[in-house]
Amino acid sequence: MSLKRFHRLWAFLFAALLGWRLVAVRRAALVPDDALAACTIHLVWLAPDHDFWEQDFLVDVLSRTGHTVAVQRQHPDQVSCRTRPPITNGGSSGSGECAFTIVVARWISLVEGLPPEFKNGSCAYGIVHPSDESLGESPSPLYDLPGMRFVLRQYALAPGHAPEARVRALGLGYKRGFWEGAAGRTAEATPASDRRLTWSFAGTLHHEERQRAVEAFRGLEPHQADTTSHFDAPDGLSTAAYRDTLLASKFVLCPLGHVNLDTFRLYEALEAGAIPVAMRVNPLLSAYWNYSGPYWPLVFRTPDIPFVVHDSWEAAAAEVQRALAAPRQLEARRRQVLAMWQHHKEEAAAFVGQHMAAALTPFPA
């Protein structure tokens, strides 16, 4: 067997195996326990004066539990516990429809403003903890409040710094409105051969890391680099134009954020079916906890990360150049990356569904 045929066979088998795992997890997540089939997840944004950037992504993930998701925006002191176990055939173990409460605390300190029922154990609920880019709020003692069943964090922590059974890295996700006006265009339906850009980047060039990334890739054409003055600045691309750029890109440069390796850009590239290009080590984990191992397995819970990950932008550019020379293998890899992303969302939904089922198991009549 030739080396080329071996590589093609390996790519096919890898994609088939990952696809099989994805179907298995999807079945587990989308077919909840019969007692929870009619549940509503009340997703409560605790900072109503600020934009709920992650709303669409969280609804995407939580809907995969098989439950309905209802979004509310309330100040912490106005939130009521909506968690209710289902009504059983032998009698009522709850009042009203089956429901579960998940609060989204833009700052974890907002949890302190919740009513007493969220602190004394009389309410079972979950927490989504975004916006902890500098890791200054982690790990928080508020994760251990009575009644708190699980925490979904945007940013991953170093191993051993939070109980894995209850605290899970979800990733940053994609911006609200990302798919609005897409007119049927999807990540799956846009193969690498139909993507006109070799690579793209959109954002600020506010530090040397990002400048090095763009410079290392500058010779790979065609490309598109759109710079802006600051995060979500009005002089940047519109959400629709940004999404369309990602859909037109084979690769997307995903350098360091302001202080953390993790950025929305990487997940938006995944959502659009492009292949992210990122560095391996998160400098914050190295500085805070002396952890210099690979970062992305902490988020995606697998050592086999199929997108481009290196310790230097020059090495990453060299790998991309090699990948471009083998179009069939490139498309197979793109599909592996997309399958990993969907698998990640399904696994996160299964995690939430399991904790919901444990919290809402009906009491004996």
From TrEMBL:
Signal peptide start and end residues: 1-25
GO annotation terms (biological process): protein O-linked glycosylation via mannose
Keywords: Signal
Occurrences of domain RXYLT1 C-terminal (ranges): 237-344
GO cellular component: Golgi apparatus
Keyword Signal: yes
Top-level taxonomy: Eukaryota, Viridiplantae, Chlorophyta, core chlorophytes, Trebouxiophyceae
Residue ranges crossing the lipid bilayer per the database entry: none
Keyword Signal set for record: yes
Any one GO MF annotation of this record: ribitol beta-1,4-xylosyltransferase activity
Pfam families: RXYLT1_C
Organism: Chlorella variabilis
Protein name per UniProt: RXYLT1 C-terminal domain-containing protein
Domain of life of the organism encoding this protein: Eukaryota
PANTHER family recorded: RIBITOL-5-PHOSPHATE XYLOSYLTRANSFERASE 1
